[in-house]
Amino acid sequence: MRARSSALILHFNPGRIGSNPDNTRKLHIIFVLHCILAEYAQRQTQACPGGQVQTGPVLPCDLALVPGLTHKSLMTTRSFPPRPDFSLERVAIARGLAPVAGVDEAGRGPLAGPVVAAAVILDPHGIPAGLDDSKKLSPARREHLFMLLQSTAEISVAIAGVGRIDADNILQATLWAMAKAVDKLGQRPDLALVDGNQEPQLGCFCKTIVKGDALSLSIAAASIAAKVVRDKIMDELAREFPGYGWERNKGYGTREHVEALQKLGPTPHHRRSFAPVRRMLKQAGPRC
């Protein structure tokens, strides 16, 4: 079978890997993940330069990407959807990978407060309308969608506090929280779709997707859950430590926050491993 320029070609040949069930399962997962990207690319691009992509009922394959189709090119296609959808999950579920969890975080960049990760398994027959990247939604809309998700989806949230962030660094703390969130789900997913390009250590197969919250509804749902939970935490901390504007800036390094940090000094909830806070520590002791 032939495919032109941007088609993904896979060839699944169990005979080449022997009868080891683990190897067969791993190769099957690789096959499915490639098919997920291939079918999405086919749906988005529809036609390749020089002619239509020729495919059968299941994409053929030899575990190699045809030159021209990479994950980067897939994510930058001109027909990239304005909103996430459930197509990646449906392809995975149709090929026996179920359930599928979306995983995302909130709070990697702030100077204060925890980083929060969420894992969400959506009910394919009960997905709330309007799910999107949490950054594109108003606080009121996020709150409403989170309420709907709590009645229709399985949600798990994990929190990495400032102590872990400063001890391990923000990336490792984030990956730890993601793994914890997935581990705390009531059912173990067959596949986790994770926002970003860093893969946490999970007890299931994982696919990282840059800007995944704009592509996958499951990741978008996780982004909403993580954001809403973290915002509530920062609102509570704002009442405990007034003056920093955390009820508005959520711990991010806004002008208001930085000026308050210079005036009041760091709190126990500021990240000492972040440069602006380290500088303040030289000028003022922690406010306890």
Q: Can you put this structure into words, describing what you see?
A:
With 288 residues, this protein is an alpha/beta fold. The chain folds into 3 domains: 1-78, no CATH class; 81-240, Ribonuclease H-like superfamily/Ribonuclease H (Nucleotidyltransferase, domain 5, 2-Layer Sandwich), CATH 3.30.420.10; 241-281, no CATH class. The protein has 10 helices and 9 strands. A hairpin with a 2-residue loop joins strand 2 (47-48) and strand 3 (51-52). The protein is elongated and about 60 Å long.
Descriptive tags:
288 residues; alpha/beta; Nucleotidyltransferase, domain 5; 3 domains; two-stranded antiparallel sheet; 9 strands; 41% helix; disordered N terminus
Strand content: 5-15%
Q: Output the strand order for the largest sheet.
A: 7-6-5-8-9
Mean pLDDT: 80
* Structural class category: alpha/beta
The CATH superfamily name of the largest domain is Ribonuclease H-like superfamily/Ribonuclease H
- Can you tell me the residue ranges where pLDDT is under 50 for at least 5 consecutive residues? 1-19, 46-80
Number of domains: 3
